Amino acid sequence: MKKIFSRPDSLKDNPFHYCPGCGHSVIHRLVAEVIDELGIKDKTIGVPPAGCAVLAYNYFDVDMCEAPHGRAAAVATGLKRILKDRVIFTYQGDGDIAAIGTAETIHAANRGERITAIFVNNAVYGMTGGQMAPTTIPGQVTTTTPGGRLPVRDGYPLDLSGMLGLAAGSAYIERTTVSNPKGIIKTKKAIRKAFEVQLEDKGFALVEVLSPCPTNWKMSPTEAARWVDETMTKIFPIKVIKDVA
After folding, report:
1. Among residues 125, 87, 90, 121, which one has the least CA distance to residue 104?
2. CB-facing half-sphere around the CA of 234: CA atoms within 13 A
3. Is 53 in a helix, a strand, or coil?
4. Mean pLDDT calculated for residue range 112-120
5. Cα–Cα dist 221/227, whole Å
């Protein structure tokens, strides 16, 4: 019998702890599938965030190196510079990469560090209870904006990927989603390209993935996926932001 579906070799046989409808499980699988397809499992090192994916080392069957909150790009830079033959990727949520880690990420992109960043944007601080994040959209209700984010009081959503596209050293920046099957297919292609950019030594690469967070958004998984497609993408359009690779 022909096998058409199986667990990626780069994923451990552990059940995910993520909430039902959360995008992390899907994104983990896509990253693992790409690592398998590129044949780079034995030389890949992942750097997980402080956040919901802090336990990513329980799932990825590659070397992992934990970083302090927001410092994944700095840790990845150090790893890549001393281990040039390795493939280094960071896996970060919006609270990690677009708040405390903003400086590290912008400067890593501007220097053209040969690393790959996976940026999971669910518009809230997921692990700590759903507070407003830099990516929270106007009007969105969070535990710290119970009446909705008000730009005149709380500022506007931070378009980190757009900022990184302006950095001279960034080679490939794309925003995708895992809220629907078409988006999942495109996300895998984007992740593969981001790894290939590193393998071809072309510069900094990042894929921002819009991801549902049903628990903190107080929605069902179906409602959360629809909210990404119908509301979140108006603020964060799905597109290739920069490709000079």
Report:
1. 90
2. 7
3. coil
4. 98
5. 10
